[in-house]
Every structure is written in structure tokens, then in C-alpha cells.
Amino acid sequence: MGACSHSARGTSSLISDASAIRGTVTLSTRHVEFFQGIDFAALNAPITEIAFLRLRNDAPREQIEALEQALRTGVEEAEGSHPPSIQGRVKEFPNDLAVFVGWDSREAHAANAAKLTLEFLQLLGATVASHTLQFSELNRIM
What top-level branch of life does the organism fall under (predicted)? Predict the structure, then answer.
């Protein structure tokens, strides 16, 4: 189970789930500098999607901003979401965009993912080199 701590300056530490690798346990901490003030709806939802998007080195700034806006709009319009999403850059990895989205359930996320438009998928593919995605019940921790 992940944990999130935050400060008034809009920086947060996300401690990822422990995972067994060759018999050892590893934890990683990522400090996220949020773009705007934090609305806790996403973190207080029954399920929180935590995505780290590694942006392509050659992605133009305008394209990255278009993706950020598309993510915000998509969450606001998605059935079963708890808008707004929380977005920010990972201090340790400046090319990583962190996105936190609140959902009623994993099924609500999957149902909305099945409805993604070709235009959004093309923007995502042109902007993101790789990603990690996990779900957590942060409302039980906070």
C-alpha cells in the first residue's frame, strides 16, 4: 500500500508499494511538485490511480501542455471519477509527470479507459515514452 505526505509548498513524497526483487524489498520515494494547489478529492476517493508518465525527450512543450489539459478534462468528464486530478513533475526525474486520479472503483477506471478517443490515444503515444500505473486505497491511509 502506498503512502503520500504533503506540505504547504505543494511538494509531496510518494512512497511506492514495496516489491520483492530477488528476495529483497525495495522502496522508492518520489517527490512531486504539483502544478496547482492540492484538492484532496482524488486522494480521498475509494480508489486512487497513481500514474507516472515518462515524457518523450523530443515532445514539444505545447504537446505536453495539451496532454496535461486532456488528462484534466478527461477526468472531469469521466463517469465514476473524483475530479479534479492532481498533476505535477517528479523532482528526481524531471521528465516524469505524476498524475493522481480518484475513482469509485478499478472497474470505473477500466470502463472509462475503454472509451478513450483515438485523438487522445495518439496524443498520449506521441508524448509519453513509458508509464507505470498502480491503484491504492489512499483514503484508508490518510
Answer: Eukaryota
Q: Which CATH architecture has domain 35-140?
A: 2-Layer Sandwich (3.30)
Q: For residues 86 and 39, is the Cβ–Cβ distance under 8 A?
A: yes
If you count them, how many residues does the chain have? 142
Decide: helix, strand or coil at residue 53. Answer: strand
Domain definitions of the chain by residue range: 35-140
- Looking at the DSSP bridge assignments, the partners of residue 3 are 15
Q: Which three cell numbers stand for residue 100?
A: 493522481
Question: What is the model's pTM?
Answer: 0.79
CA separation, residue 75 to residues 72, 81, 92, 101, 131 (Å): 5, 6, 26, 7, 18
Tens digits of residue pLDDT in 63-107: 999 999 999 999 999 999 999 999 999 999 999 999 999 999 999
